[in-house]
Amino acid sequence: MNQTANYQLCQWAPTDRILMENFNSDNSKIDTALKENADNIAALETAVAGKGNCQIVYGSYTGNGGYGSGSPCTLTFDGKPIFVFVFPKEREGSHDIHLKLLRNVPYAISLDANSGYVVGVEWTDNSVKWYSISAVNSGEMQLNTSGAQYSYVALLESNE
């Protein structure tokens, strides 16, 4: 009688005599292999669960020129944002402003090569909004210049 390459299961030829012992032996081999695979999957799931606790998302938006608390920028996500980084899609020379928002921190600084501008920040379960509150109050400082393209990368809390 022939056997399979991996688990040495029976492969009968038409002239082979079929015995119950062969079936029992094959079933035992299959049961052992399935159990080993299930244990390996469980160990892998445990290892992966300990490798991180966030989801990375990204996107873009177009500025509308608004600024201040009456015209905030808002990003909404499918989960709870814990960190958001906003930056222009294309460099704007020395005014390459970017913004880092950290969960539950009510203020941030929009930074360019020469200075920083205070930005108010408000968080909800699945969104963040920000608005310029500096003496120099403009859409540019809020990362909301009319027609300008901005990108963002966000870390969302995992649904573990």
Note down, in words, how this protein is organized.
The protein is of the alpha+beta class and 160 residues long. Helix content is 19%, strand content 36%. The chain contains 1 helix and 10 strands; from the N terminus they run ββαββββββββ. An 8-stranded antiparallel β-sheet has the order 3-10-5-6-7-8-9-4, with no helix packed on it. Strand 7 (107-111) and strand 8 form a beta hairpin. The longest helix is centred in the first third of the chain and has 30 residues, at 20-49. The protein is rod-shaped. The mean pLDDT is 86.
Features:
single chain, 160 residues, alpha+beta, 2 domains, eight-stranded antiparallel β-sheet, 1 helix, 10 strands, rod-shaped
Produce a short descriptive summary.
This protein is α+β, with helices and mostly antiparallel strands and 160 residues long. Helix content is 19%, strand content 36%.
Average per-residue pLDDT, rounded, comes to 86
How are strands sequenced across the largest beta sheet? 3-10-5-6-7-8-9-4
H/E element order: EEHEEEEEEEE
Q: What would you call the structural class?
A: alpha+beta
Q: List the domain count as a whole number.
A: 2
Helix content: 10-25%
Distance between the termini: 50 Å
Strand content: 35-45%
How many whole angstroms does the radius of gyration measure? Answer: 29 Å
